Amino acid sequence: MKTTPERVRALLRASPFQDVSPAELEPLLPSFQHHHCDAGKFAWRQGDAAADLWFVLEGQVQAVQTNVNGGQIVTGVVGAGESFGHPALFAPHARRIVSIVALVPTDLARLPREPLLDFLEKHPAAMRRMLESMSTVMLSLSSLFTQVAFHDVRGRIAFQLLKLADEYGQPVGGGLRIPFRLSQTTLAGLVASSRESTNRALNAFVASGHIRQELGYIVVLDRDGLRQTFSGTAVN
Prior knowledge:
CATH topology of the largest domain: Jelly Rolls
Number of helices: 9
Strand content: 15-25%
Largest sheet: 4 strands, antiparallel
CATH class of the largest domain: Mainly Beta
Number of strands: 12
Shape: globular
CATH architecture of the largest domain: Sandwich
Order of helices and strands: HHEEEEEEHEEHHHEEHHEEH
């Protein structure tokens, strides 16, 4: 991969390299391979071999799972300075259970398993970060199951908007803008809901002043209001 200061900084923000110095990372840089994906293009598809850890250098991708009937759910969104593909990476002969699709023009880097394992064995701090990130992925999945079981659609959407605003939000006009166009289909997948139910919930949040929608982006205006919605929408 052709390295630039910007790409190195993006890698150093991503798990497992947050506690690694640029000098420590430098010998590993030749093992990375660069990929560019236009919006709507796949980085990998469900069923591909899980042989690499991937990093978003610039842009955003979403993880999509498809059933035998062609139905899809979105299981996650990953932005710049983050890594993805952890859970299956260390399972023998594992295959990807989701597809990765670029939401916007996106630059990616992938690191094969063997150079990564060699690096982790030599850098205990990186190993701890890798274990931490894998635990976070599993906790996020458990959280989604809990939300589906105990919260209605409005509560689940409120939770996801708060999460995305906390992770990616950019201050604008009295709120936090989620800096990528989050389609209703994508958001519906993230909360295991239908597009129609998601649309109704978003319209209700706009009417109540919790969010506004502008040019395809969502701006979170009232985090406390969304938090109260999440806390008060248990499924009876």
